[in-house]
Amino acid sequence: MEVKLSANDIGYIAMFEKITGAVIKDCIADEDKNKILFIVKKGDMGLAIGKKGKHIQRVRQSLGRRIGVIEYSEDPAEFIRNIFHPFRVNDVCITKLVDKKVAKVAIDDRDKMSLLGRRGENLSKAKVLSRRHHNISDLIIV
């Protein structure tokens, strides 16, 4: 699946990469929540964050927005685990049906309410990212 970026997204990526040295695979800006979510190349999470969070702090100050960072993985199950971090994911099972892929994500009972968040924002974000990067049609939390 091809990821399409706006001119603003490309500018955010360029700034993030310049400040952190991490390679960005994707960027999603949420204007309503004043937040930008970056997907970093596998292995670049440490660079993105920086020592004691220094890089993230600089990006946050430069952009004047809240920042989220998720590490990419070619393995869809691992990527879904990364999306849901720091929640405790017990298992991710991806089923290929005739015309779609569905992921069942087993979340520890202690984290389920927090994961759903206000108005299901965490789940919505996870669905968008898993569809965008691994063509997963639906996420089911169990």
Describe this structure in words.
The longest helix is centred in the first third of the chain and has 14 residues, at 7-20. The protein has a 3-stranded mixed sheet with strand order 1-2-3. It folds into 2 domains: 7-71, GMP Synthetase, Chain A, domain 3 (2-Layer Sandwich), CATH 3.30.300.20; 76-141, GMP Synthetase, Chain A, domain 3, CATH 3.30.300.20. The chain contains 6 helices and 6 strands; from the N terminus they run αββααβαββααβ. The chain has helices at residues 7-20, 45-49, 54-63, 76-84, 112-116, 121-134; strands spanning 24-30, 35-40, 66-71, 89-96, 101-107, 138-141. Helix 1 (7-20) runs antiparallel to helix 3 (54-63). It is of the alpha/beta class.
User: In the CATH hierarchy, what is the superfamily of the largest domain?
Assistant: K homology (KH) domain
Query: N-to-C SSE series?
Result: HEEHHEHEEHHE
- What is the overall pLDDT average? 90
Structural class: alpha/beta
What is the strand content?
Answer: 25-35%
CATH class of the largest domain: Alpha Beta
The radius of gyration is 15 Å
How many discrete structural domains?
2
Q: Would you tell me which CATH topology of the largest domain applies?
A: GMP Synthetase, Chain A, domain 3
Strand order of the largest sheet: 1-2-3
Q: How helical, in percent, are the residues?
A: 40-55%
Task: Give the beta-strand count.
Answer: 6
For the record, the CATH architecture of the largest domain stands as: 2-Layer Sandwich
Give the count of helical stretches.
Answer: 6
For the sheet with most strands, the description reads: 3 strands, mixed
Low-confidence stretches: none
